[in-house]
Amino acid sequence: MLKIENLHANVGDKPILKGLTLSLNPGEIHAIMGPNGAGKSTLGYVLSGRPGYEVTEGSVTFQGQDLLSLAPHERAAAGLFLGFQYPVEIPGVSNVQFLRESLNAQRKGRGEAPLSGAEFLKIARAQAGDMGMDMDMLKRPVNVGFSGGEKKRNEMVQMGIIDPALAILDETDSGLDIDALRVVGDGINRIMRKPDKAVLLITHYQRLLDYVRPDFVHVLDGGRITRTGGAELALELERDGYKELAA
């Protein structure tokens, strides 16, 4: 589904990714762990097409397409979803209207007919209910006045409505208490643990992996993958830290 080969990327004049190679197959969940400044968030931003992140070498293929040649909205329409460490607030924009416009824009990009208001609300109610959110929250401005846990739940509702093929989740566990962590983990499994989908889960800590068990754990350090293992590697990192692993 996703094939990254020898990826180099700069932020400004500073090289961040330095020859990263990684492949995800349908049905797989991969966790990316690593110290601060290793390039984890940069990887997510490069894949999603965020401005200011310049690819200087390498290639990325997604579902048989050259991902790097696509504009950000084209990547989204192709099935890529980026979850933010700190979901942004958008004052004055209704959450439910934002989600309907987002979904229909992607459907248009794929040559599909837009959903009517009634059709969309049926999907939105189901996804919100699964995440323990009521429709009143979806009628509020996007993330405005939401707690950290509510923002992450709202992002899971967005992901459920968009229904992407590949979810790149950047520190989704950040700011979550124990109960919210379980709810968000269950949401990731419900939406994305399917044979035709894949997840790239970027995290500092093992705790989310108690709920979303990865098929592979990768250590990203110095802009490249330095080690790959199974779910037990996350426990080793939690116990010994990155310095001991490097030693």
Question: How would you describe this structure to a colleague?
Answer:
The structure is a single chain. With 247 residues, the chain is of the alpha/beta class. It has helices at residues 40-48, 72-78, 95-109, 117-130, 135-139, 148-162, 178-192, 232-246; strands at 2-11, 14-24, 29-33, 53-62, 65-66, 80-83, 90-94, 141-142, 166-170, 198-202, 216-221, 224-229. A six-stranded mixed β-sheet has the order 6-9-10-3-11-12, with helices on both faces. The protein has a four-stranded antiparallel β-sheet with strand order 2-1-4-5. A two-stranded antiparallel ribbon has the order 7-8. Helix 2 (72-78) packs across helix 3 (95-109) and helix 4 packs across helix 6 (148-162). The longest helix is centred in the middle third of the chain and has 15 residues, at 95-109. The protein is globular and about 50 Å long. It starts with a strand and ends with a helix. The model has no long low-confidence stretch (mean pLDDT 91). InterPro entries: ABC_transporter-like_ATP-bd (IPR003439), FeS-cluster_ATPase_SufC (IPR010230), P-loop_NTPase (IPR027417). Pfam families: ABC_tran. GO terms for molecular function: ATP binding; ATP hydrolysis activity. Belongs to the ABC transporter superfamily. Ycf16 family.
